[in-house]
Design brief:
The chain is an alpha+beta fold and 255 residues long. Helices cover 20% and strands 14% of the residues. It folds into two domains: 74 residues, no CATH class; 112 residues, no CATH class. The strands form five sheets. Strands 1-2-5 form a three-stranded antiparallel β-sheet. Strands 3-4 form a two-stranded antiparallel ribbon. A two-stranded antiparallel sheet has the order 6-7. A hairpin with a 2-residue loop joins strand 1 and strand 2.
Length: 255
């Protein structure tokens, strides 16, 4: 879809008549399916129009370019996606990082936008490959957390330009956790391991909780940042949602 001269991806839930304009229609986007690209993709760039299918044989814009809804060729789709997801910065995955965590809802950047607390993945339309979607989830989470581990407070970039922090799900993919910022958190490798195994968790007030079953609670305490609370983004809608934190405490955390 094109909006304000730029491309984005979304799943249309319903098309309804525009109550304010006769003969016009509104496309309603299904919640949590709007997907902003990493890079803005304009209608035209240095090499001309990005969506080549709207050009006629003379290379001019045809009347089709004015259509609000139109089909798009595979070549144009791949061109738009490749530009939108091009990663020129050296912000690559950790070498030992698995490549399949994102499949589904997309990202909703609006502060008050609703989102699903669960996601049945076999019903979700996949818009791109698992590897691409994993990179996008990682990129957005790391941007929100400034590549800093929420638990330790460390921000480490190795010699190869790789951020040594993971984009972790609070409610995991295997438990129908959605791929949105409110269900994501940036964690270093050790913190991620402890979080997934229930040795640490977070209260609704973002206080870091240590399991009574941890065999070396003192050492874990030494890894925490000095505030004892998770370091999270300043914008509220990017922070861990209490619903997901509660799910983690009830289903993962070893009390």
């Amino acid at each position: 879809m094109a909006t304000r001269g730029y491309f984005a991806v979304a799943k249309i839930a319903q098309v309804i008549p525009d109550p304010k304009a006769s003969g016009m229609y509104l496309a309603l986007i299904e919640p949590n399916t709007y997907l902003d690209f990493i890079n803005a993709v304009p209608f035209s760039g240095p090499d001309g129009v990005i969506e080549r299918g709207v050009l006629n044989e003379e290379g001019r814009l045809s009347g089709r370019a004015q259509a609000a809804v139109r089909p798009i060729s595979v070549a144009d789709f791949n061109r738009i996606v490749s530009i939108g997801l091009d990663e020129r910065e050296l912000e690559l995955p950790r070498l030992d990082e698995t490549v399949a965590t994102f499949s589904g809802d997309g990202f909703e950047e609006a502060a008050q936008a609703p989102f699903m607390f669960e996601q049945e993945r076999d019903r979700v339309m996949r818009l791109s490959s698992r590897i691409v979607r994993n990179r996008l989830f990682r990129r957005l989470v790391l941007q929100a957390y400034d590549k800093r581990c929420a638990i330790t407070g460390l921000k480490l970039i190795n010699g190869g330009g790789r951020a040594e922090v993971d984009a972790a799900h609070i409610r995991p993919v295997e438990a129908n956790g959605p791929d949105i910022l409110a269900n994501g958190i940036a964690l270093s490798g050790t913190a991620h391991w402890m979080f997934d195994r229930g040795l640490i968790s977070l209260s609704d007030e973002l206080e870091i909780l240590i399991s009574r079953q941890a065999n070396d609670a003192e050492s874990i305490q030494g890894l925490l940042n000095k505030t004892g609370k998770a370091i999270v983004p300043s914008r509220p809608f990017e922070r861990p949602h209490p619903h997901f934190l509660q799910w983690h405490r009830e289903n993962c955390f070893k009390h």
